[in-house]
Write a structure and sequence with these properties.
The protein has 270 residues and is mainly α. The chain contains six helices and no strands. It is rod-shaped, with a radius of gyration of 59 Å. It starts with 8 loop residues before the first helix and ends with a helix.
């Protein structure tokens, strides 16, 4: 345990957790030798696999802390820290190889890639161990940095997708609210139009009744006028007809026979 290395409190905490996990892995594999039941061995291997994944996560955090402190530490200190990180990576790979050995004894030929996520098309743990053992420290550092960069990029892409989804959801909600308000205005306009149509229908009916009443009055007046004209014509044609009464305000027709004045004078003196 490299306790003589100058570390920040956060780095010391991460380093201590890594060493604790390594001790737990060593004790777990020692206990695994004493277990004879295959099911219990499989459960023990799953528990150890979880600790190895936790170690990998802590190593990544340790590497981030080294990068954060790199500008403030001397080059010698940075070199020692990087060497210690490589030592932890190699120790972790040795546990991965040991895990592969126990899995082989249990009849499992294919195992998941020692990573946060794996699939059926990904490499086996044995291939990862062989690849790591054939790489130099600088190549391991480069490969680790590349993996962490890819992970950071994937996280950033996920954040962008989430942000875009939230933006689309907000815009959709605003559009729905605008359409709801527009539908409300349309319904109000339809109610106003329907009310106006009812008022217009009532007005048309009233006008129709008034027109019918005016027509009846005009017809009645026309009948009266025709009746008066008929009476006048009959009076003119038959002036001596006593069955037809005189029209009030209309003078009787003048007599057609007149006597000479001298005849009247002669009768008076005779």
């Amino acid at each position: 345990m490299a306790t003589d290395l100058p570390m920040s409190p956060q780095m010391e905490q991460i380093y201590g957790e890594i060493r604790d996990n390594f001790r737990a892995l060593a004790n777990g594999f020692q206990k695994l030798d004493k277990i004879k039941d295959p099911n219990r061995q499989s459960n023990q291997l799953e528990e150890l696999t979880g600790k190895m994944r936790e170690c990998k996560r802590l190593v990544k955090e340790f590497d981030r802390e080294i990068k954060d402190e790199e500008a403030r530490n001397p080059p010698e200190v940075n070199k020692k820290l990087n060497d210690e990180k490589q030592s932890m990576i190699k120790e972790l790979n040795s546990y991965v190889s040991l895990r592969k050995t126990y899995l082989s004894t249990l009849g499992n030929k294919k195992v998941e890639l020692f990573d946060m996520g794996a699939g059926s098309s990904e490499p086996t743990a044995e291939e990862n161990v062989q690849m790591a053992s054939s790489m130099t420290n600088q190549e391991l550092v480069h490969a680790g940095n590349k993996t962490m960069d890819e992970t950071d990029q994937a996280i950033e892409r996920s954040k962008q997708v989430v942000a875009q989804t939230l933006e689309v959801g907000t815009q959709t909600a605003a559009n729905l609210k605008g359409q709801t308000d527009q539908m409300g205005r349309i319904v109000n306009d339809l109610d106003t139009i329907q009310f106006s149509i009812k008022k217009a229908s009532q007005l048309v009916k009233e006008i129709g009744r008034q027109v019918a009443t005016d027509k009846c009055i005009m017809l009645f007046l026309l009948l009266i006028v025709f009746g008066v004209i008929a009476i006048i014509v009959v009076k003119i044609v038959h002036p001596n007809n006593k069955d037809i009464r005189d029209i009030p305000g209309l003078a009787p027709p003048a007599q057609t026979t007149r006597r000479l004045l001298y005849v009247k004078a002669a009768e008076q003196f005779g």
